[in-house]
């Protein structure tokens, strides 16, 4: 099968990641941070090492501010619900995923918060203007995706965070599509909190994510055993344990760490450049096929991460995805859990077919895809 | 000779503290607090050979909260 659905999860995983998960199950199966015996401490060392390296990779504020979660969605829920109080206002982009929109919608339904949506344009100045106009006096928080999971737009994180902070709002980033593909840097981009999955651009296993922040005080979603202060009835305040009740996913963490090391050794620039080359080839190949609709005039690697959406006239995106699957090509059709993106880009009726290559894909595979799309679109 | 451990709480802070002290030339080791009180709960301590005031200053300068010291005695 030709796998071009890496925005959903990367496949194939590097051998180093598989080895790390196997090692976790074989050698590091004790419970870290709970006991004093050598096996527990040995496992805890691996977790600590993972925190340190992930903190370094994203230029964070200290390994204690890297807390592991089950995925990016849990990290976002923790972050968003952890800082908002009744009466707060939130600003989000039109490209946000339901992992941001649904928690906010629930809070809005309960009468807790309200939110405004700013639009993202090819013209950056228009985006920034839309962002500025979304603020209110009670805006507490902005949550912005680093990359649209549907159309690939790279949002101008640094400029948005500057505007957010000028308005005394916190600035959180959903790094689901950006982590491991484009530079994401907490300190230099002035990101207050970054939420990431381990299993997409970081090539780690599913079932692991992280919330990485600058030492904010989060109210907790989950309370439980942390291996510390057992007689304290309240959840302890110190990180990272405050956001990590229960036994950690050691295999997931070690796998995520191995993925980060793999991306570092491959080179973030190399990942981006190679995937961009394939996506650019795909874009212009699709552009030349009759009845194919794309959602940009030209492919600009400064504005787009290596993933794109298209449609074929007269067919729903799910039908196209099914036909491609029959032809041995794995892609995603439909609405990608990003309803506002489809409203904004006028793709609510058809959804879109999303293609997201990884560094494991080849030019030959892109050509096979293009040939099949041409047959379908004819 | 007294063997004192610096109480730092969770295993994450214990490892941070240990690494910091080792980078600064101290022989530091991590172990469990053998005498946790009801107030502090379970936790980890750092045993430092040739413990001196500079160890405490170093940890405080690097935002590691010191929760006191504990006599490690024969547990180490």
Chart the SSEs and their pairings.
The complex is a heterodimer of chains A (378) and B (76).
Chain A: E1 2-3, H1 15-27, H2 38-57, E2 66-69, H3 72-83, E3 89-93, H4 98-109, E4 114-118, H5 124-133, E5 139-145, H6 157-166, E6 170-174, E7 193-197, E8 209-213, H7 250-266, H8 268-287, E9 292-294, E10 308-312, H9 317-326, E11 329-330, H10 339-344, E12 353-355, H11 363-377
Parallel strand pairs in A: 1-11, 3-4, 3-5, 5-6, 6-7
Antiparallel strand pairs in A: 2-8, 7-8, 9-10, 10-12
Chain B: E1 4-9, H1 11-23, E2 28-32, E3 44-48, H2 53-61, E4 68-71
Antiparallel strand pairs in B: 1-3, 1-4, 2-3
Describe the structure.
Chain A has helices at residues 15-27, 38-57, 72-83, 98-109, 124-133, 157-166, 250-266, 268-287, 317-326, 339-344, 363-377; strands spanning 2-3, 66-69, 89-93, 114-118, 139-145, 170-174, 193-197, 209-213, 292-294, 308-312, 329-330, 353-355. Chain A is of the alpha/beta class and 378 residues long. In chain A, helix 1 packs antiparallel against helix 7 and helix 2 (38-57) packs parallel to helix 7. The longest helix of chain A is centred in the N-terminal third of the chain and has 20 residues, at 38-57. With 76 residues, chain B is α+β, with helices and mostly antiparallel strands. Chain B has 2 helices and 4 strands, in the order βαββαβ. The mean pLDDT of chain B is 88. Chain B has helices spanning 11-23, 53-61; strands at residues 4-9, 28-32, 44-48, 68-71.
Give a nutshell description of this structure.
In chain A, 38% of the residues lie in helices and 13% in strands. Chain A has 378 residues and is of the alpha/beta class.
> Can you count the helices of chain A?
11
Can you count the beta strands of chain A?
12
The assigned structural class of chain A equals alpha/beta
From N to C, what is the helix and strand string of chain A? EHHEHEHEHEHEEEHHEEHEHEH
Percentage of helical residues of chain B? 25-40%
Number of helices of chain B: 2
Strand neighbour order, sheet with most strands of chain B: 2-3-1-4
As residue ranges, the low-confidence spans of chain B are: none
What's the N-to-C terminus distance of chain B? 12 Å
Number of strands of chain B: 4
Secondary-structure element series of chain B: EHEEHE
> Mind telling me the C-alpha Rg of chain B?
11 Å
Give the overall silhouette of chain B: globular
Strand arrangement in the largest pleated sheet of chain A:
2-8-7-6-5-3-4
Give the strand content of chain B.
25-35%
Biggest sheet features of chain B: 4 strands, antiparallel
The span between the termini of chain A is 23 Å
- Strand-residue proportion of chain A: 5-15%
**For the CA atoms, what is the radius of gyration of chain A?**
21 Å
- Overall average residue pLDDT of chain A: 96
């Amino acid at each position: 099968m030709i796998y071009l659905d890496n925005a959903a999860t990367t496949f194939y995983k590097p051998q180093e990641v598989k080895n790390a998960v196997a090692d976790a199950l074989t050698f590091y199966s004790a419970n870290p941070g709970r006991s004093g015996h050598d096996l527990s401490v040995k496992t805890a060392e691996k977790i600590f090492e993972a925190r340190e390296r992930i903190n370094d990779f994203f230029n964070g504020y200290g390994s204690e501010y890297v807390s592991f979660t089950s995925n990016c969605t849990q990290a976002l829920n923790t972050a968003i619900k952890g800082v908002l109080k009744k009466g707060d206002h939130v600003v989000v982009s039109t490209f946000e995923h339901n992992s941001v929109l649904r928690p906010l919608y629930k809070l809005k339904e309960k009468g807790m918060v309200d939110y405004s949506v700013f639009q993202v344009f090819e013209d950056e100045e228009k985006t920034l203007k839309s962002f500025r106009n979304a603020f209110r006096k009670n805006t507490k928080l902005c949550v912005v995706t680093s990359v649209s999971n549907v159309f690939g737009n790279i949002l101008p994180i640094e400029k948005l965070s500057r505007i957010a902070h000028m308005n005394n709002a916190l600035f959180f980033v959903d790094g689901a599509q950006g982590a491991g593909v484009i530079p994401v840097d907490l300190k230099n981009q002035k990101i207050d909190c970054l939420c990431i999955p381990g299993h997409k651009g970081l090539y780690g296993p599913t079932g692991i994510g992280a919330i990485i922040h600058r030492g904010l005080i989060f109210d907790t979603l989950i309370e439980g055993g942390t291996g510390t202060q057992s007689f304290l009835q309240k959840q302890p305040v110190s990180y990272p344990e405050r956001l990590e009740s229960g036994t950690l996913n050691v295999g997931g963490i070690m796998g995520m760490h191995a993925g980060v090391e793999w991306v570092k050794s491959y080179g973030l620039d190399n990942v981006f450049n190679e995937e961009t080359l394939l996506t650019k080839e795909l874009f212009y190949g699709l552009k030349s096929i009759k009845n194919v609709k794309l959602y940009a005039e030209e492919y600009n690697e400064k504005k787009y991460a290596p993933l794109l959406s298209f449609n074929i006239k007269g067919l729903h995106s799910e039908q196209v995805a099914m036909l491609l699957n029959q032809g041995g090509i794995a892609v995603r059709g439909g609405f990608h859990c990003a309803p506002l993106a489809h409203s904004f880009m006028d793709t609510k009726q058809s959804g879109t077919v999303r293609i997201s290559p990884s560094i494991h894909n080849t030019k030959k595979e892109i050509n096979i895809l293009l040939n099949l799309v041409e047959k379908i679109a004819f | 000779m007294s063997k004192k451990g610096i109480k730092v709480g969770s295993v994450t802070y214990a490892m941070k503290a240990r690494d910091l002290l080792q980078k600064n030339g101290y022989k530091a080791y991590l172990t469990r607090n053998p005498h946790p009180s009801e107030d502090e709960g379970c936790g980890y301590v750092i045993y430092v050979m040739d413990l001196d005031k500079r160890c405490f200053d170093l940890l405080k300068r690097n935002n590691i909260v010191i929760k006191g010291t504990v006599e490690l005695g024969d547990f180490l």
